[in-house]
């Protein structure tokens, strides 16, 4: 049993750390547990990549702008914070792929670029006849003999051929991960695809049978909050006990004492003592905070890629696009710098005043990170030049907001899952009471990060209740 008050420190105030702190404090209150929680964040604000800016009637998401409603963890947290009334839903409509300078509608029924409806796939001009024939070999090819892991690029090329990968799958995945699909791990990103191939042999047939899991995902309702996702951060923060959040405070070192307690040294010179610690900061911070734990050194080799989101606001009469959709992704075989473009006011009408247009483009990512270091004016001009190739723009934007996300996209390279499992095994054995979570480890999406926060809170409470059961967590 818990007995005397146990102290828990959550390091990192992104959505994972916020979630963990919230559910820990909730459990302490509802079950009358003697648990005191402190949340520490190095920056002046909470929320991590979630950052909403409101300007001249526009709602601008510098980070994620939405989530899939089938991911229950986000809806659960929104309900917990009393924000259900702010939910705004949107059914994903038509999207396009920019290939060789031409926009092509993504075929209906595509799931992550994988065709599940034959007629739309056969009719599209996004792929050549030879590319379609090559994709059809998926019906005949045997299951792979993969034993440990494979790259996303190699997996998709083996099943569907290079043309579909280059024209559609890679552009779609670059929006999610901003990485090199020939280095990204299949088992860390989409292990379900390997399971489908092994069960059904044909990836296309398997995906058709798995419609609720994959095809529906591409055409399911997205959701956001009317005031922006920053409202969720604000809502969770307001639920935390007063005086339990330290902003603008950095943890410089963590050492576990002989009695099992953790000593945390802060940049303010203050020392904190904790019975348990949850770390939800980026992976590359762990080796510096705990240099005595050599098993964290491997995280220094884990890449993290930089990108920039570029928001531009226009008068509606100054910009037009003759496509029936909300945006497009860009194939690398096109002479463009942007990797995607979204008409935010079409996707989310509430994000722009009537008579206005709000565009969001991304630049950077694998092989093109240098652009993120250019000035705002340089990035704006590069993006405008690209946009003018696909739409009519007759004036400069009313304003432009460039959001740089340095080393913000962790890359799950091949073997990632086993490396994280090995690190967690070392933690359980050598640092009982310490737990890790966040976008660097087991999923980069908003729901993934919230789920990891929930799991960290659960494991922490189980450990505090009976430390001798730590190996079973």
UniProtKB/TrEMBL annotation:
Transmembrane segments: none annotated. It is found in: Cytoplasm. Pathway: Porphyrin-containing compound metabolism; protoheme biosynthesis. The keyword Oxidoreductase applies. Its cofactor is FAD. It catalyses: coproporphyrinogen III + 3 O2 = coproporphyrin III + 3 H2O2. Involved in coproporphyrin-dependent heme b biosynthesis. Catalyzes the oxidation of coproporphyrinogen III to coproporphyrin III. This is Coproporphyrinogen III oxidase. It comes from Bacillus lumedeiriae. The lineage of its organism: Bacteria, Bacillati, Bacillota, Bacilli, Bacillales.
